[in-house]
Amino acid sequence: MKNEFRESIGRAVGNATLTGALGKFSEAYKINRARAYEGIDFEALRGVIAERKSHAASNMEQVADTFAKNAEALGAKVFRTNDPGKVREYILKVARDNDVKSVVKSKSMATEEIHLNDFLEKAGISVGETDLGEWIIQLAGQRPSHMVMPAIHMTKEEVAELFSKEVDERLENDIPRLVKVARHELRSKFLKADMGISGANIAVAETGSIVLVTNEGNARLVTTLPRIHVALVGMEKLVEKFEDVVPILTALPRSATAQLLTSYVSIISGPTPNTDGSLKDLHIILMDSRRTEMANDPKFKQALQCIRCGSCLNVCPIFRLVGGHVFGSIYTGGIGTILTAWFEELQNAEDIQGLCIQCGNCKEICPGKLDIPEMIMEIRRRLVMEKGQPLAQKAIFGIVNNRKLFHGMLRAASVAGTPFRSDGFIRHLPMFLSDLTDGRSLPAIALEPFRDRFRRIKQPKCTEKAIFFAGCLIDFAYPEMGEALVRILNKAGIQVVFPEDQTCCGAPARYSGAYEVAAKNAEDNIRALLREEADYVVSACPTCTVALAHEFSDTLESLGRNEWLTKAKKLAAKTVDFSSLVKRLVDKGRLTLKEGQKLGAITYHDSCHLKRTLRAADQPRELLNKAGYQVKEMLECDMCCGMGGSYSLKLPEISAPILRRKLQNIKETGAPVVAMDCPGCVMQIRGGFDQDTADVKVKHTAELLAELVEEGR
Ligand code: SF4
Ligand code: SF4
Questions:
Q1: What is the pLDDT of residue 418?
Q2: 10 Å Cβ neighbour count for 18?
Q3: How far is the CA of 211 from the centre of ligand 2 (A)?
């Protein structure tokens, strides 16, 4: 990670105005969006959008041809190119041929993508942005920080300052007054302009129409007042049929701005008339710029399903902390990382891909059904394939890939950490490691790992068998969680088996793009976990469970190691997370929870992998409720705690403020205990509370339930 990039993160995180405003916006957005979608089956809706957009992407050439034929039949001139340079030249030629001196533009990310304003200005043509947000950033000489709300990072004070300079008058920070000033200033630009340039939200092949969705009405003026209209359309905006507009128009305003519909929806089918009755000169440019190449890439084709609503940015814990400019390119956030890798080059995404903590919030909310975290992982994989792993990482994974050496080093670290250990925590580390204990204590490595303790556990005679995959944290930092799991399963008549040659689940390597390392971890674990026949393979770490249940197969398949696939799938079919298994056992009457207890208030933190990949949000809550706790929900219970595996070590400057917010939300419930199902989240949140003054106990659900379950009756 380059120093310059790291510094820009530091500046953004240190900008309290930015983080405060984005944080508040993000909290309100989720509530308003949920309201806007009331009564709508979001899953069904996004299924339709994904299917229609995917169909258009699969047939992009043909859909583009049909669009061009139908738009030309209506009188438009259609130009299609893969080359952004040719787009700029085409627009300049149209301008020069028609003696254009000034242009007005409505918001268009495609024009931002090709830096059109600079190009036209350098050719002597004045360009005026007419979307309020775009005009603000044009005056400020900045790039948009968000694809829907380009000036979201700016305060009203900053805007008043800019407008004051523009109109040469001291203006107050009064929003209605500022809007009035903008309207007045922009009106004269509209009237003088010789050419209007717009983008398009949708382009319909069947009718040759473009659809524009706006709130300010400026796009209507841009497309109707000047005598020439140029629409720049990225080819991902193409759909085949007019009926495909309906699902997109249902989702776009709801997802973008939590509105049922925007103030203006314009459908332009052919040139519109001028005031003298003649027809406008309408040019539609279909810009490819690697979009057809993307459509042919099985891992990235889904990116063409994006409807550019920006909601993935609004829910991203990283975007709301650092804003858009840290991403350094036109498109920002997780989707911006993907588009930068394609529309610029893969190398340009090298630093920014590291910002994604893989929480999956964006995937859950995306109306185009894009799996952004998966595509970012693929970017990481391709970067490692192109450039190799960084040397330090290579050395670490070299150790992780040798189980005996890795475990031997963990045991040695337990001894070496003794001078820094106190009450099970490491609170201060020396010198360059000191950042790692800023705002969060680290767990001390256990003096006796779970694998050693397990040998002494005497288990009753059982009818079923479960293989326990502990994962590194439970094995070497929190062995008591593993012991709790054994006690609970024994009460249900399940014998626990712990294969000692199990090793790291490979998640750290996979999330760093080191798939070869992750594949070796997968093979070692498959061998260890399938050696003995068992009814279940259980883990009390959601990240490990996801690795066993999903990622082993994906990693091995992506490397063509098909000889392992049947075994990986067999393992996946048996794998279950702790709470889901216990819930099943309680439902079947094989375990009961001590009844009639009043254990008081508790709050629950959803771990990203458990909630969004394993879909197990209700199970732990139901178990805790049944056991006698009163679950009090915290604000944003399913927002990432900032742990993200090694993320908190790589980017402590981002992880720490995310953790602070989580601790605050927990404290505001007033509950004295917070439960969670992930040892990684326990490490982050317990370590955070160790340095906070509040007395909140942080527990894995297994630790709590171990005292509360009894044998079934
Ligand atoms: S990726 Fe999804 S959520 Fe993000 S802008 Fe595109 S459609 Fe919207
Ligand atoms: S997975 Fe999480 S961190 Fe990554 S882009 Fe999506 S919302 Fe942001």
A1: 66
A2: 23
A3: 29
* Across 562-589, average pLDDT: 97
Six token digits for residue 701: 């659900």
Pocket of ligand 1 contains residue 335 by CB under 6 Å: yes
| CB contact set of 230 (below 8 Å; sequence gap of 6+) | 91, 94, 195, 196, 197, 198, 283, 284, 285
C-beta of 53 in contact with ligand 1 (< 6 A): no
The helix/strand/coil state of 422 is strand
Q: Is 315 in the pocket of ligand 1 (CB under 6 A)?
A: no
Q: Among all ligands shown, which has an atom nearest to the Cα of 334? A: 2
Task: Answer whether 376's CB lies under 8 Å from 358's CB.
Answer: yes
pLDDT at position 540 over 80: yes
The residue whose CA has the least distance to atom 6 of ligand 2 is 362
Residue of 177, 309, 286 whose CA lies nearest to 237? 286
| Across 338-361, average pLDDT | 97
Q: What is the CA radius of gyration of the chain?
A: 28
Residue nearest to atom 4 of ligand 2 (CA): 356
Query: Which of 186-195, 266-275, 298-307 holds the top average pLDDT?
Result: 298-307
149, 250, 308: which to mutate for ligand 1, most atoms within 8 A of CB? Answer: 308
* CA atoms of 103 and 120, how far apart (whole Å): 9
DSSP letters for 27-96: HHHHHHHHHHTTTS-HHHHHHHHHHHHHHHHHTHHHHHHHHHHHHHHTT-EEEEES-HHHHHHHHHHHHH
pLDDT at 391: 82
Is residue 433 predicted with pLDDT exceeding 80?
Answer: no
- State if residue 309 touches ligand 1 by the CB under 6 angstroms criterion: yes
**pLDDT tens, residue by residue, 37-78:** 999 999 999 999 999 999 999 999 999 999 999 999 999 999
